[in-house]
Structure prediction request, 427 residues.
Amino acid sequence: MNNSKILIQKPLHPDGMRRDILVEGNRISGIGEGLVAEGAEVIDASRMAVIPGLANCHTHAAMTFFRGYGDDLDLMDWLNNMIWPVEAHMDEEDVYIGTKLACLEMIKSGTTAFLDMYSFPHGTARAVDEMGLRGNISYTVFDQGNPERAELDKRNMERYLEEFKHYSERVQFSVGPHAIYTVTGPMLQYTHDFARANDVLVHLHLSETKGEVDNSIKEYGMTPVRYLKQLGVLSPNLVLAHSLWMDSEELQILADHGVACVHNPASNMKLASGYRFKLEEMWSKGIRVGIGTDGTSSSNNLDMFTAMKLTSFLAKAWSGDPKAGKAQDVFGAGTSAGADILRLDAGRIEEGKLADLALLDLDIPEMTPCHDLVSNVVNSANGSAVNTLMVDGKILMRNRKVPGEEAILAEARLYTEKLFAKSKQKK
Prediction:
């Protein structure tokens, strides 16, 4: 139980006003001017701004090991010839170390919660629990038409669902069928039924490339969204990563079923998967849209400030409309909408909400002047603007220092060398 009290004095809020914030336990208990709290730790934020913690709605945290490895390749070449051969040699400890590095990077760049998909989910969960972040961790379903793997995936879903109850409330379990080209229709239906029965998220890559759409039409006679509709697996539990190659009718289908979509602009551009993410049309249809970085192997960092900026600028560039992707709307996608997708009572600076907050340094060039805080956050800043990070009412970073960060970096370097040496020996 967190019984601490923290008083954040005079931070600049996204609405341009300065108000104190009182945090008691893991919740925001008061917002106003001149707040007083006996026994509270006081943070002087008169030269800082406060924003809700950012929600990274699609990533593969432990892929920090692959930052800068296999760049400048198309998606399937990159996966088949660079990533998957090395991943085959990873174990739970590798995932744990790689995720600790990812958590460190996210803490230092303002992210307080993320939706992950990777192997060895206990490795990810342990790291998240220790580092103090919030993580919704998807068990990766990857049956590829193999009945034995399908049965293993079914047993593992049940097992992990139960085992994850032993972690803190900050760690949540979900199921992650990788994609329609690696998971069979019956397995997609099973994961859908499992998720609805247990009220967990389904985290799926969909319509990431034109090739995926063309293959879907060739194999199933229809586009990916229509295929999912035919299978009967569309629901508010479903979160679709990428969601690039979709027509207006497909978007309406997703809206009708309450499905959420996640934009990953850095990864999409780097892998040349596409750039015409229909952000404004999704919003107009009422689709919940989150923002993600994807893994560092395909975006090279986990900086949600960069992801928000790319989201805004891309929306303007391809549509030819400078009013598209307004900073305020994109900021909402990175905070409140992302928190909603992850089912968190956070993402807003309001009394009663979870105390997941980032304090930004205003005395840096990219935040000066500050005509509009939200504009600076989306269009100008990067993660290095974050001075202090709080999750669940606990301070994880203060004055840009995270306890133990040097050891985390050293261990990540060591494990990277060991992993790649192991993969070369076993070729």
